[in-house]
Amino acid sequence: MSTDERIDDETLWGQAAEGEDDAFAEIYRRYADRLHGYLFRRCASYAQAQDLTSVVFLEAWRRRGEVRFDDGSVAGWLYGVAGNVLRSSRRSIRRYDAALRRLPTDGDEPDLADDVASRVDDEARMAEVLRALDQLPVAERELLALTAWSGLSLTEIAALLDVPVGTVKSRLARLRVRVRGLVADADGLPETDLTAPVRSPR
Question: Which domains does the chain have, with CATH numbers?
Answer without folding.
Answer: 1-113 (1.10.1740), 114-202 (1.10.10.10)
